[in-house]
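Section 3.1: Structural characterization of target chains.
Under the original work plan, the team committed to producing a structural model for every single-chain target entering the pipeline before any wet-lab resources were allocated. The record below documents one such target. The sequence was received from the expression subgroup and is listed exactly as submitted; it comprises 427 residues.
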Amino acid sequence: MGTVGGGTVNVLKRNAEEIARRAGRGVVITHAATRDINKQRICDTTGITLTTDPQVVVNDPEVQIIVELIGGDGLARELVLAAIANGKHVVTANKALIAKHGNEIFARAQEKGVVVAFEAAVAGGIPIIKAVREGLAANRVEWLAGIINGTGNFILTEMRDKGRDFADVLAEAQALGYAEADPTFDVEGIDAAHKLTILASIAFGIPLQFEACFTEGITRITREDVNYAEELGYRIKHLGMARHTDKGVELRVHPTLIPERRLIANVDGVMNAVLVKGDAVGPTLYYGAGAGAEPTASAVVADLVDVTRTLTADPENRVPHLAFQPDALSDLPILPMAAVETAYYLRMQVADKPGVLADVTRILGDAGISIEAILQKEPVGESDATIIMLTHRVLEGQMDQAIAAIEALDSIDGSIMRIRLEHLDAD
């Protein structure tokens, strides 16, 4: 009965008639668990029995559907598994729970003939799970890319629009309630990795493998990087990227340069967007609010409607949890980052003397890396010069070796800033 729980009550009550017309029967909240029964809420709890013990709700024989909105993967996992064991359907908005324990949860649900619905776990109010799982069922999904954490997107937008530093914007995001007191999950990409893990599983028909997702945060991005990217015609976004290749699946979250003309590059503030490329349909874009009481409640209630419709359906004929039939999941491996091919933005501080650029380009050439663009910023006073390069696509392993060789040059000061670059075109 927190933010999303309160929003769910409000949406269900306000749109009760519309929801009943869609579901074929009314959806009524009878019980809710909360830490503090007397707390002021954003919703009217009239007619709802409140308790501080969630097991009471999960074990009530009259309750047909459990809605889990407490977050985390400890108590939430216990409650969801208990609900399934009791033969109850489950609706959850918990991305960590699904990303880390979804394989176990879906197997138990399959055994008990119940549904676990989780639309609200990815991108808040955007119906991206249903779009990929059902709307694009005719397609072989080739890749998907998403801005799926609003906090990180707000920070990068403010850095670009107002020329502010990361730490300054993070403090504001915390004051506005966009970021937690401990912002690690958001700014280090863990939250986005949970969501990407779920999307990739549904898109490619592979088991959930959160631990295999490469994750890099935005804490090292400077306003200079944001400005240089802009100068070269790109925007920096904290992107979740999953790609199906012949060798395996790329599964990665990291800051990414995207051409500014792409629609997804213009998704600003706390908004979310997911770009999905299917072989038949081509690229499709899904945009909307990725968090908030009622946007997330929109997805929770849509799941409730779906589950209500299935109460009388044959369990064998339901939409599979992860889009593909449980016995048809692929064992396609998740690729290590060294085997991932992408383009790069490189920023380095160099001594202002002849031959430095030649040394750098020679090392890149020897590693089979071709350069797309170079930007050189002259030094101010006694400081080093700044060189920015954009490269063509190359294996990350080759780039790792080239960067190590460049950093070993006497003329290079400190470490090289590397940001991956994706064109996200229809090819």
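The chain has a mean pLDDT of 93.
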